[in-house]
Amino acid sequence: MFLGGLLATILLDIIHISIFYPRDTITATVHFSAGMAILSLLLKPFSCFLVHHMYRERGGELRFHSDFLGPSQERSAYQTIDSTTEGPAEPFAGLEARGPDTRGY
């Protein structure tokens, strides 16, 4: 949703700057604020790329597949909760056989 909002603000910023930018008298404050709005507009595609990269890095998948940002990768770094790993049924089963702990606290 955040990525969609960023993409929508790019279009809205273009419309807003084109409609409300004054063409006759420009003070220093208006000139500065218009420059900052244009700079923000130029940096938004980079922000969209970073948001998309973080989303994919955390395991998100888009509903449509696009190859222009790179091929999709298999995310096997995470273990699923229902995975069956072989281990002791009771993790503290062998503690009684060792005897008392010799470390002093």
From TrEMBL:
| Keyword DNA repair among record annotations | no
Regions of compositional bias (Polar residues) in chain numbering:
77-86
Where primarily located? membrane
Q: State the GO CC annotations.
A: plasma membrane
Annotated region (Disordered), positions in chain: 77-105
Record field: transmembrane: 30-51
Q: Set out the biological process GO terms recorded for this chain's protein.
A: angiotensin-activated signaling pathway; regulation of blood pressure
Protein name, entry field: Type-1 angiotensin II receptor-associated protein isoform X2
Q: Identify the taxonomic lineage of the organism of origin.
A: Eukaryota, Metazoa, Chordata, Craniata, Vertebrata
